[in-house]
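RECORD TYPE: inverse folding
INPUT: structure tokens
STRUCTURE:
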């Protein structure tokens, strides 16, 4: 059902240079109970979990539908619920301000009704559910045209409430996992399209899939996509099984994001080599997935950041690296 909804929507619309949230699609998803998929039923949600949410994000990404489902449901609204703050039907995103009261690359801020703002205040963090008009928002976009805005707030004017450090840490981990899931979906779709293209494109009297060099390229990209998904699913399973409290969860997430980031390089490069010139055209849909993978892999932490997290955790574990991996 998820895939059918997104496929129907996407087939009727060409790719756009700049992307905005479509109110009609949002209403339809709301009617189907997908906008607050993981929200509690007593508060109007569907009562599903992260595994179902991962399928929803995957379906959207594999159909190149850009919409702030993760930011709204899994991040902003979850944070309000976890901190005992009331919500409503407004569309939300979330941002974590730096010491200058500014957050950069905030997804969908200019397209949301409200922004859940988190900032550091002395020895604690505070959170406020803020109307978009009360914030200074400078519009921006990422590599695929999704809104990635700069948000500046006057925190002294915000009616914030204290938030536990554990929730802030969970927010950061959940945001990292969201992007890993989306990149994996884009890589899987890229791999599938590469296999289909190689099997149907005839060159020098035979299909591309009969050439050994092409076979090697596809083998490499599918292996990297599978590795990225395995690492991401391992991190997600550990997160859900421990309610995001497993001692080695930050390490597992760092491993997933590192694998995802490096896999994106190989998959994108090989896929475009397999497709040749046609894969670089705006009319061909390959770029909708390859550019998405490259854009998303650097959000909520760069590849270098996650590599360093893996290295630091491994060195800190010393001779007990096996426990770090298996616990």
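DESIGNED SEQUENCE:
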């Amino acid at each position: 059902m998820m895939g059918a909804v997104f496929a129907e929507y996407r087939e009727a619309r060409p790719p756009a240079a700049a992307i905005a949230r479509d109110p009609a699609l949002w209403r339809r998803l709301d009617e189907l109970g997908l906008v607050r998929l993981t929200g509690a039923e007593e508060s109007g949600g569907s009562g599903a979990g992260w595994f179902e949410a991962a399928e929803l994000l995957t379906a959207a990404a594999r159909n190149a539908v850009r919409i702030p489902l993760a930011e709204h449901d899994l991040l902003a609204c979850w944070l309000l619920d976890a901190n005992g703050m009331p919500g409503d039907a407004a569309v939300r995103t979330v941002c974590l301000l730096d010491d200058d009261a500014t957050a950069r690359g905030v997804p969908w801020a200019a397209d949301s009704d409200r922004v859940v703002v988190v900032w550091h205040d002395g020895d604690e963090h505070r959170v406020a559910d803020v109307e978009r008009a009360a914030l200074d928002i400078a519009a921006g976009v990422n590599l695929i045209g999704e809104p990635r805005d700069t948000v500046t707030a006057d925190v002294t004017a915000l009616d914030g409430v204290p938030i536990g450090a554990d929730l802030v840490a969970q927010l950061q981990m959940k945001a990292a996992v969201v992007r890993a899931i989306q990149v994996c979906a884009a890589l899987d779709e890229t791999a599938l399209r590469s296999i289909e293209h190689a099997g149907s494109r005839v060159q020098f009297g035979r299909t591309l899939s009969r050439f050994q060099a092409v076979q090697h390229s596809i083998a490499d990209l599918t292996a990297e996509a599978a590795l990225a998904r395995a690492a991401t699913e391992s991190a997600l399973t550990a997160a859900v099984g421990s309610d995001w409290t497993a001692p080695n969860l930050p390490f597992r997430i760092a491993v997933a994001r590192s694998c995802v980031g490096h896999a994106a390089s190989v998959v994108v490069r090989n896929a475009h080599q397999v497709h040749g010139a046609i894969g670089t055209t705006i009319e061909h849909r390959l770029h909708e997935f390859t550019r998405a993978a490259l854009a998303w892999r650097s959000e909520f932490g760069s590849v270098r950041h996650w590599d360093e997290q893996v290295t630091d955790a491994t060195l800190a574990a010393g001779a007990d690296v096996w426990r770090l991996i298996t616990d």
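NOTES: The beta strands are 92-96, 102-107, 114-121, 124-131, 136-138, 148-152, 161-163, 202-203, 206-207.
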